[in-house]
């Protein structure tokens, strides 16, 4: 009898989605989590993966990098 991969849990070929989103206790930074309609093997050449990377980089620059750069230039 064969069981479905990951016992039928949503997954990204290598790990469950639950595992991907889990962080260790004491993690101090809230992650930017965005589910994307591709797996991690095709993330860098799949249109949905590239769109998500652009969104993540844009969010990161707006929320962390630009305010920090502006604070150091004052």
Write the layout of secondary structure elements.
Layout: H1 17-21, H2 47-72
Description:
With 74 residues, the chain is mainly α. The protein has one domain. Helices cover 42% and strands 0% of the residues. The chain is built from 2 helices and no strands.
What is the total number of structural domains?
Answer: 1
Rounded Rg: 17 Å
Note poorly predicted spans: none
Strand content: under 5%
Q: Strand-and-helix sequence, N→C? A: HH
Number of helices: 2
Short description:
By secondary structure, the protein is mainly alpha-helical.
Properties at a glance:
0% strand; flat; mainly alpha
């Amino acid at each position: 009898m064969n069981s479905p991969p990951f016992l039928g849990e949503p997954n990204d070929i290598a790990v469950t989605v639950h595992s991907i989103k889990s962080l260790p206790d004491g993690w101090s930074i809230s992650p930017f989590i965005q589910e994307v309609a591709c797996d991690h093997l095709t993330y860098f050449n799949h249109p949905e993966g590239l769109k998500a990377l652009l969104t993540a980089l844009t969010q990161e620059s707006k929320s962390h990098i630009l305010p920090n750069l502006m604070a150091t230039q004052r």
